[in-house]
Amino acid sequence: MTLAFHKYQGTGNDFVILDDRAAQFDTADHARIAQLCDRRFGIGADGLMLLRNKEGYDFEMVYFNADGRPSTMCGNGGRCLVAFAKHLGLVADDAYFLAVDGPHAARVEADGTVRLKMIDAAAPQLAEVGEEDVFMHTGSPHHVHFLDAEEGHTLAEFDVYGAGHDIRYDQAYDPAGVNVNFVEVPADPAHPWPVRTYERGVENETLSCGTGVTAVALAASQRGAASPVRLQTPGGLLEVAFQTQPDGGFADVWLSGPAVRVFGGEISL
């Protein structure tokens, strides 16, 4: 069997995308999905997405982590799938699609930037792991740890894998686990906030995480950051705009950044 695929990336967060409008792909074959995402024996990606038909929407997004398992929302993945839908001619500039966390609006700008409306979010909660850390759910669960200057190290030299792995598997987040974001607080909150993320399901650091930088931007608003917040990931720059609500929560949350088609091809299964 030969499978046609497309490879997209959003600030280095990369995905295998399949046009599955005929609903022929076996979503229960988790081993096959993991194989396709394997960087040595497959195509290689942080996750795999199916684009499927859905009544009342332009399309449906079905997302799997690199381990082959269904996952929660992926912000960069959603932006890439919108770019793919435009590549197929399913949408023009505006899109409306269904994901695991509900409906999403999106827009492709003239420069190729894809803006994705995220779900509303509650106010940041103090995390059980770390006295000053916070937990936020932005379509996926995220732990946010701010590295202040007095901690004596920069984000560039921080052990993201080791610290992220420990928090991801901490019993406070059992059984599903959590994504973990480490943030360097800039001297000027108007400057980009450096972010590195350990992602569950990939079980490693990724070059970028859309729901992760969204969580960081919303949490950073309590530290002086004003909308829109720019966030510098290892894979590139993202921006998050939002409206703060009277109860401390957030609405009208938009994640913006590039979404680029890398290549397409066929793979024998």
TrEMBL record:
Protein name (record): Diaminopimelate epimerase
Catalytic activities: (2S,6S)-2,6-diaminopimelate = meso-2,6-diaminopimelate
UniProt keyword Transferase present: no
GO function terms (MF aspect): diaminopimelate epimerase activity
Enzyme Commission (EC) number: 5.1.1.7
Function: Catalyzes the stereoinversion of LL-2,6-diaminopimelate (L,L-DAP) to meso-diaminopimelate (meso-DAP), a precursor of L-lysine and an essential component of the bacterial peptidoglycan.
Binding site for substrate: 13, 65, 75-76, 179, 199-200, 210-211
Coiled coil: none
Site-annotated residues for Could be important to modulate the pK values of the two catalytic cysteine residues: 142, 199
Active site (catalytic residues): 74, 209
Subunit-level organization: Homodimer.
Pathway(s) served: Amino-acid biosynthesis; L-lysine biosynthesis via DAP pathway; DL-2,6-diaminopimelate from LL-2,6-diaminopimelate: step 1/1
One family name in Pfam for this protein: DAP_epimerase
Keywords: Amino-acid biosynthesis, Cytoplasm, Isomerase, Lysine biosynthesis
Organism whose genome encodes this protein: Hymenobacter caeli
Location (main, coarse): cytoplasm
Family, similarity comment: Belongs to the diaminopimelate epimerase family.
Keyword Isomerase: yes
Superkingdom assignment: Bacteria
Subcellular location as annotated: Cytoplasm
